[in-house]
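## Example record

The block below lists the input lines for one assembly entry, exactly as stored, with component labels intact.
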Amino acid sequence: MIKHALSVTRQADFAAWYQDVIAEADLAEESGVRGCMVIKPWGYGIWERIQTVMDAAIKDAGVQNCYFPLFIPLSFFEKEADHVDGFAKEMAVVTHHRLIGDGKGKLIPDPEAKLEEPLIVRPTSETVIGAAMSRWVQSWRDLPLKVNQWANVVRWEMRTRMFLRTSEFLWQEGHTAHADRDDAMAETLRALEMYRAFAEDVLAMPVIAGEKPENERFPGAVATYSIEAMMQDGKALQAGTSHYLGTGFAEAANIRYQDRDGGHSLCHTTSWGVSTRMIGGVIMTHGDDDGLRCPPRIAPHQIVIVPMLRDNEEDTAILDYCRSLEAELKALDAFREPVRVLLDAGAAKAQTKRWGWVKKGAPVIVEVGPRDVAGGNVAVIRRDRLYQDSGKLDTAFVAKGDFVAGAAAMLADIQQGLHAEAKARLDANVRRDVTDLAAHFGGDDKFVGWAEVQWSRPTGAVLDGIVEQLKALKLTMRNTPLDAAPADGTCFFTGEPAVERVLIGRTY
RNA sequence: CGGGGAGUGGCGCAGCCUGGUAGCGCAUCUGCUUUGGGAGCAGAGGGUCGCAGGUUCGAAUCCUGUCUCCCCGACCA
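Predicted structure tokens for the full assembly:
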């Protein structure tokens, strides 16, 4: 019987387990402000890694970073009807700019200081960036225009969950303007592919990229694409979105250009984003009953050295040995970056530190005690295979030089192994033989995955009916995978000839 | 917004029904003994019980009001 580091298992209560991982791995905590969290150093360190790698990919695509205001005038939203319809229910509004005492020891908004026009705390920035684009785009020579910002946004969600849906969250939002549909659509799909590759290669999180059905589109978009990841409980997580916005936003913000022939045309715009939700995805993709398993590429520390200090004269020798090990490891590259090493020489007990790093999911933990120093060894624990078959902690005692020589390859192996494990789970849980959704999703299986069915892509009332039918089973359509096999049968819902395949499942 | 739960040392909780000025575990500090699967023993410090009223000789406990957070649901880029 293995003694695990967490008190709740995934099998027993997945939701409680998720919250326990966040607490035990020191990723984040409740802030006392409704739906908002404090992201702690380890959690924020993961976000910084996501930012670093994603930012490089964004810049590689010729997109430039900018920063736009947190506050957006209400009138900006009113210009695009679908957009405001989609967000109206969840917008935080600033109405006053000053407080006064109410005479009872409390502060209240000063009625004299009411804003003439309310300001919205941005839920997304299409409108304010569109206003800038209308100034910046004059000629066909100004296109394409591609900007991105790293920012916080606020959406007043009814129900929040740490990382997955918080009232305030951190993200990047890319916004581009193009001369025509083809160029804008190419950009939309480029961003989608960037996200797919990022999720797979960096987060080790396999995803399915596809187009969202009409009812799941971003408010105001002509087409919305997503990457969908499967969590260990079989639910889907929308981990990134990319939208082709057509000319609607360009019309609302008056983004026009003069073409080669002297005529004026509306731009075609796109927007795309990923957020701190990705961290929730990493937790539910790679976490186990001992906490998080952090993929090496986003681990703030890839290798943590834990000296077994005992407050005696041996400590100096142990620390010297650890420092030389740290220096050797830091000189290495893994994934074409310097290896990130932490020598945890703090005052806590060695065992406490070890289990702390296990729960945080540091990919490799290296323990160094007096016996290792004497023998020139290190004791290595891989987070992706913590236990021997016997249930004992799997600590490998190897020569220090051998460990250093193989460290980069070990990190690559862990990264690859985590991906393979998650990919196998995704593949095994997408079912293409489902004939009865109620039976499949209503059975005793605790963690049902997704069903892929053929459909005729109906619209309007027929689509609404399907959505209602799925809703009764707590199901939604995730996306129509871009790389699915061509349709060759009839629609699961209407019986008409099918045109494509669509994924169905429960979602976060 | 509907349903449920919770606000008591840093954290997690008990006490409340049957009022008598607060207790436990973890953490912290000190000492000694330990040390490669989360140490043991002894001792110490730290809270006036979300907030505001009320009842009472006396309120964490009873009453009224109020605020906040969490969970489930509805909703949702």
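The CA atoms of residues 63 and 356 of chain A lie 39 Å apart. The radius of gyration of chain A is 26 Å.
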